[in-house]
Amino acid sequence: MSYIEKNIKELRKEIDEICSEIGRNPEEIQLIAVTKTVDHERINEAIGAGAKDIGENKVQEIMEKYDVVSNVNWHMIGHLQTNKVKYIIDKVKLIHSVDRMSLAEEINKRAKQHGKIMDVLVQVNVANEETKFGLASNEVFEFFEKIQALEYIRVKGLMTIAPYEENPEAVRKYFKMLKELFEEIKTKQFPRVEMKYLSMGMTNDFKVAIEEGANIIRVGTGIFGRRNYN
């Protein structure tokens, strides 16, 4: 068994155990393999080991890998510049990082040109970190009101990136806050919004995220090992 295959198998087992402890169905948890800096051979190895969804942080990496990686759903999980939407609008299943109206409008424009409805998540900066993108929690409802005018976007949920902490318990409160916001939005019944996905939790803290309601987790290091991002 290869290193990547072993990691995915162990990850699935851990997800099963977490869900068993808290009474959730592990099939509800969508695992996204984060492939930042990972070459296409190792991505294809992960797909062979059962990975169905991969997440990229950069448009350029999607462009470089798209034609040599197949049988997978692509997710844009990183900060997305407005002028690069046109390159991925026909390639990705879900954009996780919608955080401003200008980006939503560009996605809507490009989706209309391709005759498709683009599924997106709204990124929320729950911890109010200056180094992170995302809407502040108190900006979300106004944003959802504005986005109703966009016919070619469907909001499918929320995403956050928690602060990195050695002890994952330190970020539980942020996951809890996002889940509460998620549930509150559900009660408002916005026409073009379906609160289906809660994307939160990465290699270091996905256990806590699942316990607090995540149904999408984004794992890179836990599958591919540590990488040099320089």
H-E order: HEHEHEHEHEHEHEHEH
Query: Which structural category fits the helices and strands?
Result: alpha/beta
Domain tally: 1
Oligomer: single chain
CATH topology: TIM Barrel
CATH superfamily: Alanine racemase
Using the alpha-carbon principal axes, give the shape. globular
What does this structure look like?
This protein is an alpha/beta fold and about 230 residues long. It has a single domain, classed as Alanine racemase (TIM Barrel, Alpha-Beta Barrel), CATH 3.20.20.10. The chain is about 40% helix and about 20% strand. The chain is globular and about 50 Å long.
Brief write-up:
By secondary structure, the chain is of the alpha/beta class.
List the helices and strands and how they pair.
Layout: H1 3-22, E1 30-34, H2 40-48, E2 53-56, H3 59-65, E3 73-76, H4 85-88, E4 94-98, H5 101-113, E5 118-123, H6 140-147, E6 153-159, H7 172-188, E7 193-199, H8 206-211, E8 216-219, H9 221-224
Parallel strand pairs: 1-2, 1-8, 2-3, 3-4, 4-5, 5-6, 6-7
Keywords:
230 residues, alpha/beta, TIM Barrel, 8-stranded parallel sheet, 9 helices
